[in-house]
């Protein structure tokens, strides 16, 4: 079940955001009820954190109804490069 949800999350984020980096981690122990994602996309440029999270949440609205916990970190490619350099 967890891999199905993770695959759906990946597909929707890839289609909606064309990320340059995407990590999806099942933090539920395998039952698919909790996920952490890191999304790096140029589409986040000019958006504050709240707007970025709302964008991700809108893409995953159906999936978020079925998961217990969802944590996201969103970066522009420039922010991600800075984070990786530090």
Q: TL;DR?
A:
This protein has helices at 2-17, 49-59, 61-64, 77-85; strands spanning 21-26, 34-40, 69-75. By secondary structure, the chain is an alpha+beta fold. The chain has a three-stranded mixed beta sheet with strand order 1-2-3.
Provide a descriptive summary of the structure in words.
A 3-stranded mixed sheet has the order 1-2-3. A hairpin with a 7-residue loop joins strand 1 (21-26) and strand 2 (34-40). It is an alpha+beta fold and 86 residues long. It starts with a helix and ends with a helix. It has one domain (2-85): 2-Layer Sandwich (GMP Synthetase, Chain A, domain 3), CATH 3.30.300. The protein is built from 4 helices and 3 strands; from the N terminus they run H-E-E-H-H-E-H.
């Amino acid at each position: 079940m967890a891999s199905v949800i993770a695959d759906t999350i990946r597909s929707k984020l890839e289609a909606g955001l064309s990320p340059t980096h995407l990590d999806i981690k099942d933090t539920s122990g395998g039952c698919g009820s909790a996920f952490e994602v890191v999304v790096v996309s140029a589409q986040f440029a000019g958006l504050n954190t709240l707007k970025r999270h709302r964008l991700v949440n809108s893409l995953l609205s159906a999936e978020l109804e079925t998961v217990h916990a969802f944590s996201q970190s969103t970066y522009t490619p420039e922010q991600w490069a800075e984070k990786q350099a530090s």
